[in-house]
Specification:
With about 160 residues, this protein is α/β, with parallel strands linked by helices. Helices cover about 40% and strands about 20% of the residues. It is built from six helices and five strands, in the order βααβαααβββα. The protein has a five-stranded mixed beta sheet with strand order 2-1-3-4-5, with helices on both faces.
Length: about 160
């Protein structure tokens, strides 16, 4: 299994990281973050997933870079119409390969389906710090109202005949 100390596979929530500290995603920020994390915590493989709407939200000056990254397989988008959008797709990838997830999202609506999010080393967050660069930390997802709702619903479903 992958861990925050470095491991086999890293799955990056590209839309989340590209938007960290901003209102619109910046592809260059995503690239810098992934490179910095891989230098800090090397992984054998990595997958960067962006939402299907990502290309429409980036600055037009980054469109060529986006198209090239997509064509080279450096970025993945979920299949059209994916229930749960990019988050579901990236969590399913991470689940299948026991990957570490790089995101500042808590994925509350998926806590019942992917309880491994709470395992040590499975979730890493990060932020760019002016004058320092990217700083990373292991994190535990926030258990908010949405998390409690889906977790309770899953428990009820397991008890139902």
């Amino acid at each position: 299994m992958a861990s925050a100390r470095g491991g086999t596979h890293l799955v990056v929530d590209g839309s989340n990281i590209a938007t960290e500290g901003r209102t619109m995603p910046i592809l260059v920020q995503l690239d810098e973050a992934v490179r910095a994390l891989l230098e800090h915590l090397p992984h054998d493989a990595w997958t960067v997933v962006v939402d299907a709407t990502f290309e429409h939200r980036i600055d037009p000056s980054e469109t060529r870079m986006y198209d090239e990254a997509l064509a080279a397989g450096e970025l993945l988008t979920p299949p059209a119409g994916t229930i749960g959008r990019g988050d579901k797709f990236l969590l399913e990838i991470a689940s299948r390969v026991a990957a570490t997830v790089f995101s500042n999202d808590s994925f509350q609506e998926f806590h019942a389906e992917y309880p491994w999010l709470f395992d040590d080393g499975r979730l890493i967050g990060g932020k760019p710090v002016p004058g320092i660069g990217w700083v990373f930390a292991e994190r535990s997802p926030v258990r908010g109202p949405k998390s409690r709702m889906v977790t309770q619903a899953a428990k009820r479903a397991r008890k139902a005949p």
